[in-house]
Design brief:
Layout (H helix, E strand, L loop, with lengths): L6 H8 L7 E3 L2 H9 L4 E3 L10 E6 L12 H7 L7 H9 L4 E12 L5 H9 L2 E11 L2 E10 L7
Parallel strand pairs: 1-2, 3-4
Antiparallel strand pairs: 4-6, 5-6
Helix pairs in contact: 4-5
Length: 155
């Protein structure tokens, strides 16, 4: 999801993933991925995606809108007015595309407001764990793993 230059897809390919489907909103990105031999389609999040997946990797645009930033780069960096809008849309669509034992990997910034994201995860019976973090310049980046909570039958 949001395949960009294809770094995640190429890593999956080198790890001998059974199948790979890359998608991006940018036509040039999709064409580039196809030139690398990666199955890819143009899609705004899951709009053109059918089926369920074991792993969904997404490095979303997560920064709040900065009107000083050039419009062209905003597509890959700006997650909406507050920075959480793209992630919220992604998470709302995620359960319909995640296999029961599957998980999503996403990047979240310390500059991204997370209260709505955490509330939505709980509402959708999804859990997250922080796999890694790294401080860069004026922010800290977090790698999150999101999956479905196991049902508790009280046994």
């Amino acid at each position: 999801m949001g395949a960009g230059t294809g770094i995640h897809s190429l890593a999956a390919k080198s790890a001998h993933a059974k199948s790979i489907l890359a998608c991006d909103i940018n036509s040039k990105s999709v064409a580039h991925l196809k030139s690398l031999g990666i199955n890819s389609i143009k899609s705004n999040l899951f709009s053109k995606i059918k089926g369920k997946f074991d792993v969904i990797a997404f490095n979303p645009p997560y920064l709040p809108l900065d009107k000083r930033e050039p419009k062209l780069s905003q597509l890959s960096t700006t997650g909406g007015r507050y920075g959480d809008e793209v992630l919220i849309k992604f998470i709302k669509q995620l359960p319909a595309h995640l296999n029961p034992d599957g998980f999503a990997l996403i990047v979240v910034s310390s500059l991204t407001p997370i209260n709505k994201i955490l509330f939505l995860l709980k509402k959708l019976n999804l859990k997250h764990e922080i796999l890694s973090s790294k401080k860069l310049f004026m922010e800290e980046l977090f790698a999150w793993k999101i999956n479905q909570k196991a049902l508790d039958f009280g046994l």
